[in-house]
Specification:
By secondary structure, the protein is an alpha+beta fold. Helices cover 18% and strands 31% of the residues. It has a single domain, classed as GTP cyclohydrolase I, C-terminal domain/NADPH-dependent 7-cyano-7-deazaguanine reductase, N-terminal domain (GTP Cyclohydrolase I, domain 2, 2-Layer Sandwich). The model has no long low-confidence stretch (mean pLDDT 89).
């Protein structure tokens, strides 16, 4: 049996026409309780907020070997977004999404970015209401 360190590299095996054009890392529907909203009935009453982030990174930032050191750490997304909303109040989803966007856009290797947030429990006849910003 071959171990990962003994696995022969596949460099040169993929034809140029099939080389990856993009490298994307994502966090989808991170379910968070957030004190958000400007209506009186919302203030001080955390609501469910689903946050999604898609980060396209350049070839150098996408892991080319099977080690944690080589990876673009997507745990960072979950940890930092959770930290950002903990114990804090937001009036608008737009404010939170912009802050998440700025945090991630500043990271090395990011070439495109999309951040969205949505409240799934606002209207009984809608799946969710939300906002999204993207670099494209």
């Amino acid at each position: 049996m071959t171990t990962p360190s003994e696995t022969p590299p596949l460099d040169g095996m993929v034809p140029d026409r099939l080389r990856p054009a993009t490298h994307r890392i994502f966090l989808t529907d991170f379910d968070l309780p957030v004190d958000i909203g400007f209506h009186d009935f919302e203030v001080g009453r955390p609501q469910r907020l689903l946050v999604s982030v898609e980060v396209w990174v350049d070839d150098h930032a996408f892991a080319s070997e099977d080690t944690a050191a080589a990876a673009w750490n997507y745990d960072f997304l979950r940890t930092e977004i959770g930290r950002m909303v903990q114990g804090r109040r937001f009036n608008l989803q737009e404010t939170l999404v912009r802050e998440i966007y700025a945090l991630i856009a500043a990271r090395a290797g990011v070439v495109r970015l999309r951040v969205s947030a949505r409240k799934p429990d606002v209207y009984p006849d809608c799946a969710a209401v939300g906002v999204e910003i993207a670099s494209f």
